[in-house]
Amino acid sequence: MEPLHSRQRPGLQPAHRGYSQMPWIRNHMWRLDPDTFYFQFHNLLYANGRNCSYICYRVERRKHRSYVSFDWGVFHNQVKAGTRCHTELHFLSWFCKMKLQPDECYRITWYMSWSPCVKCAKQVADFLARYRNVTLSIFAARLYYFQDVAYRQGLLGLSHQGASVNIMSYREFKYCWKKFVDSQRRRFKPWKKLDINYQRLFAELEDILGNTMNLLRETLFKQQFGNQPRVPLPHYRRKTYLCYQLKQPDDSTLDRGCFRNKQRHAEIRFIDKINSLNLDPRQSYKIICYITWSPCPRCASELVDFITGNDHLILQIFASRLYFHWKKPFQRGLQQLQAAGISVAVMTHTEFEDCWEQFVDNQSRPFQPWEKLQQYSASITRRLQRILTMFFVASLVAQMVKNPLAMQEIWI
Prior knowledge:
It contains 13 helices and 10 strands. By secondary structure, it is α/β, with parallel strands linked by helices. A hairpin with a 5-residue loop joins strand 6 and strand 7. Helix 3 runs parallel beside helix 4 and helix 12 crosses helix 13.
């Protein structure tokens, strides 16, 4: 399997059977023919006659605190009898042989004509479990046998291993056209029903993954996670979004995802998701949550019960804003979280940047803070500290009333 390119350089021979042609010529553009792209990436719900599988890939390597472009290209295979290795496995073989270094961190993005089959999904999930220095985001034009239970479980297994599984929208098709297609500078022309098909496929994938959301759009992230005291123009409604990372003792990410309020609150859906993972109670885990609004009293109580019943879990909550912070029930909810050992803090530049890198379709752009981010964060932090300090003082007074002699000894 070789990466595709617009022109074949004479005399270039494969260095290793099963891997891309070497040397990797960077001054050649590795691109698809426009007709091939339009036919193979057409996002039909049910597609006939498309017996090829294509991956347009982008590899980024971590340098200092951000990721930089490292490699890109296209792989394909014939999906028919006699095919020895599917596209996904061709890529992994090439990547492990030619690129992967144990002391480097990589971020891989796949734009796929078909989502992975059962066997490929399993092997990709095993790869991610083995190499914790690699993260993978998948954007599929179509879902392969999405009504088959085994194929659905394969995609769910990928998600459980930390892969971000998504459906290609107009934005991804346009990006692929510019990056991976020999378009001769022609504009991308979307086909009929592209957006309608995207919505249908998105709904199917959302059902498969248990409503775990895909990467957030840049505009959505800034609108919903913005910590401004008032909604900037144009006005919009601020909703609850919860992004979480489940980490093992070695700080590797076991699972991650994003929920929003949908029939049930995001916090409740998050609890259900963690419970469904059946984590080993003999091993400790840390969960980091970035949330647009601090929990309401009911969700705070549910989170307290969840952590109290799972002493192998450590939960840290970083809120962009405080929800009805001037009302007593909401203040008590925050105080109950703290009393249960749940860390509650306000998102600062550090948390916003990490959320941007982990949960936003940022197209490799660095996080750009909005005006007065730090000032707003400091103000919200002071407000939260006052609420939590009130609880500490009230608890101290209650103890003094209950056992005044013991408290006198403490003060002495």
